[in-house]
Specification:
The chain contains 25 helices and 24 strands. The protein is an alpha+beta fold and 695 residues long. It has five domains: 82 residues; 115 residues, OB fold (Dihydrolipoamide Acetyltransferase, E2P) (Beta Barrel); 272 residues, no CATH class; 49 residues; 152 residues, 4-Layer Sandwich (Metallo-beta-lactamase, Chain A). The strands form five sheets. Strands 1, 2, 3, 4, 5, 6, 7, 8 and 9 form a nine-stranded mixed β-sheet that branches. Strands 16-17-18-20-22-23 form a six-stranded mixed β-sheet. The chain has a five-stranded mixed β-sheet with strand order 15-14-13-12-24, with no helix packed on it. Helix 2 runs parallel beside helix 13 and helix 12 packs across helix 14.
Length: 695
């Protein structure tokens, strides 16, 4: 049978179905249709679909196109309904629909405590709230932070906690270009958080524990404790935990950034690579059994059990969950002796996952894992065919390189969009780290197996620690090279779509010599350049001041064209994690570079003049005296100075007051009240996010 595009399209039903499913998911999230509207839509497409089943065969054939349209709309309706149902804010018993300040809350911790810099954190489900002496069952999840003091709170997974302290809505930092933390938590049914001191909560005598989940937690901590026992350096132990079971809480933040910059962060973000190796070892083990009838059902049962147990122990993150679902489809297809297209298998696993949780569609790991596998499937053979190598060892090395190149083709636009950088040394790092991490993974499994035998375990642990140290040092040395990573990429969703059009149609032209494909790729490229040029022209004209929202720290940027000048705490710039989280996304968004001075900025602290605007930066105690009011366009108050708004108003004629997050909460609250009473415009970055002042 000819392998025409139309034939291949018909042989991949789930590829055809997943497109309208994703369209329905996206439409529901952004447009938020009501339940009544969704029911009307489902009925309007469901009734015609049912009607088609009663038509004569000849009429069905002639109306086949209409049936296809109806099926497509029905699958989109499934996406709409699934997304509506998954959004917990649409449930009548959701916490947010019943909560009022002052109610007593009963929550159950759903994970062991995770240690943070100043607190212990855990996710919790809300069991009930008490109002007017009556308990009411509610649903929802919250983040609970226990204040860190001399003792660890006596709570663990399954502990039930009572407290009266008001919940806080989870908010984004509000800094331009920053991570959407609010949406990230909303996708996990979390909209609120609470910070508890030791005298603000009570631990009940009852617990609410799922035995299977408790078993998985016990296994996970047994693995962590074993690794910690034999790998006694913090940096290497953290990577070992992440590599084996995806436990990332002990990872060094600077080391994670180095892995990201060099293009191998997937090594410590547990993924399908791990399941693939386990799947391969299990298949190899069963190859020694000759009696196929005996192993026909035992083999898939054992393989799937091991894969899914490993998936749950690793936390069920989307990247590994996707692989588990995909391998499940592959194993079942092999068991019933049916070969399926890998494209259809990938689409089927994605379809199942999105029906289970439509919010996986926004998960970066989900996006990268699918595009990486798809990219390897499509481009591995064409890339591998670039060179013909007779030597088996050299050919194996080239195959590894070809896989790395192929995986990068379709993942690059996503990397540009989410991470705003491209690792220029990804070929070198993947060439070394992928096989090395595979050896380390099996060494860790061997270490766990022989852990009751200290003599043998110590030998394996020394080898494992040495390999981990070599891998970390190798990554850090490459990361120090000035050309290790290309930063500052800022693509919109529209530009990302254009990049995919360019890549897909360029490859189509190269593989099939199609002139229409080349024309489409060139047209998309021209449009991409036009959009980028227009954005560059806009950036050349930009001129603004930004007061960032950084907890306990002062940070102010002046933008002029594509240059910026920073004023603020040196600690903010010295801490790479805080800088990259709060400030760098804004600079990347505006594509600005550091400058020693700006032509339009005159500095004579505490006063500054930017263009024609006069600014007072008040970050220390200062006494002002003037026979007449001094005109000032902006007063920025930082670092808790001992000032009163009434005193400032008596000296300065100011159009705008700004209070940044380096001030105490109670002081900001007092200043805001004073400003409101004097009818003075004011802005708190703690409440509203970064203050942007365009000139």
């Amino acid at each position: 049978m000819p392998s025409t595009p139309i034939y291949l399209w018909k042989q991949m039903p789930f590829v055809r179905l997943i497109i309208p499913l994703m369209a329905g998911i996206i439409l529901q999230w952004y447009l938020q249709f009501s339940l009544s509207s969704l029911i009307v839509f489902v009925v309007s497409v469901g009734v015609p679909l049912l009607f088609f089943s009663f038509l004569p065969l000849s009429l069905k054939y002639s109306l086949q196109w209409l049936q296809g349209v109806t099926v497509t709309l029905f699958i989109a309706a499934i996406g709409l309904l699934t997304t509506y149902n998954k959004d917990i804010s649409n449930h009548t018993d959701w916490l947010g629909n019943h909560y009022n300040e002052g109610v007593l809350m009963l929550v159950t911790l759903q994970e062991p405590l995770v240690e943070k810099a100043k607190s212990y954190k855990a996710e919790a489900t809300v069991d009930a709230i008490q109002s007017d002496g009556q308990w009411q069952k509610v649903t929802g999840r919250i983040l609970v932070y226990f204040n860190k003091d001399s003792t660890i709170p006596k709570v663990k997974y399954g502990s039930r906690v009572l407290f009266l302290k008001p919940l806080q809505l989870i908010k984004n930092s509000g800094n331009p270009g920053s991570f959407d933390y609010k949406r990230y938590n909303a996708f996990q049914d979390i909209y609120h958080q609470v910070f508890l001191k030791k005298d603000e909560y009570t631990v009940t005598t009852t617990t609410n524990i799922n035995p299977f989940k408790q078993w998985l937690i016990d296994i996970r901590f047994l693995v962590i404790n074993t690794l910690r026992k034999y790998i006694n350096t913090d940096r290497e132990a953290g990577v070992a935990e992440a590599l084996l079971i995806g436990y990332r809480d002990d990872l060094d933040k600077d080391l994670v950034q180095a892995y990201s910059n060099t293009g191998v962060v997937h090594i410590i973000a547990i993924s399908g690579l791990h399941l693939g190796m386990i799947y391969g070892v299990l298949r190899w083990g069963f190859s020694f059994f000759k009696r196929k009838k005996l192993t026909r059902w035992v083999k898939p049962a054992v393989i799937l059990s091991v894969l899914w147990i490993f998936t749950f122990i690793a936390g069920g993150v989307p990247s590994i969950l996707r692989s588990a679902v995909m391998f499940t489809f592959i194993v079942l297809a092999e068991t019933i002796s049916r070969k399926s297209s890998i494209y259809n298998t990938l689409a089927a696993s994605a379809f199942v996952m999105l029906c289970y949780n439509p919010f996986f569609l926004w998960d970066v790991g989900f996006q990268l894992s699918y595009t990486a596998v798809l990219s390897i499937v499509v481009f591995f053979k064409p890339v591998h065919n670039w060179f013909f190598i007779r030597n088996k060892s050299l050919n194996w090395l080239w195959e590894l390189t070809a896989v790395t190149i192929a995986a990068q083709v379709l993942t690059t636009p996503i990397i540009f969009y989410h991470f705003h950088q491209f690792p220029l040394l990804f070929l070198i790092t993947n060439f070394v780290v992928v096989p090395l991490s595979s050896i380390i993974l099996f060494a860790e499994l061997a270490l766990l197996a022989v852990s009751p035998l200290p003599v043998i375990a110590n030998v394996i642990s020394n080898v494992t620690t040495g390999l981990l140290r070599f891998m970390n040092d190798f990554i850090e040395r490459l990361n120090q090279l000035p050309f290790a990573v290309y930063n500052g990429i800022q693509n919109t969703i529209f530009q990302t779509i254009l990049l995919y059009i360019i890549i897909i149609f360029s490859c189509w032209w190269l593989l099939q010599k199609s002139k229409p494909a080349l024309f489409t790729a060139l047209l998309a490229g021209l449009l991409f350049i036009t959009v980028e040029s227009f954005q560059n022209i806009q950036r050349e004209k930009q001129s603004k001041l930004i007061v960032y929202n950084v907890p306990k720290l002062q940070g102010i940027d002046f933008f002029e064209g594509k240059k910026y000048l920073f004023f603020g705490d040196t600690a903010l710039m010295a801490d790479g994690f805080i800088k990259n989280f709060h400030i760098q996304p804004c600079r990347t968004l505006h594509k600005v570079e550091p400058a020693e001075y700006l032509d339009k900025l005159i500095v004579g602290l505490p006063f500054m003049q930017f263009h024609e605007k006069k600014i007072l930066l008040l970050d220390q105690n200062f006494t002002f005296e003037s026979p007449r009011k001094i005109p000032v366009d902006l007063i920025v108050i930082s670092k808790n100075p001992q000032v009163r708004i009434s005193q400032l108003a008596a000296v300065f004629d100011c159009r705008q007051y700004v209070f940044d997050a380096s001030n105490s909460v109670w002081k900001i609250s007092k200043w805001k009240k004073d400003c409101d009473s004097l009818h003075l415009p004011n802005y708190s970055t703690l409440d509203k996010g970064a203050f942007e002042w365009k000139l």
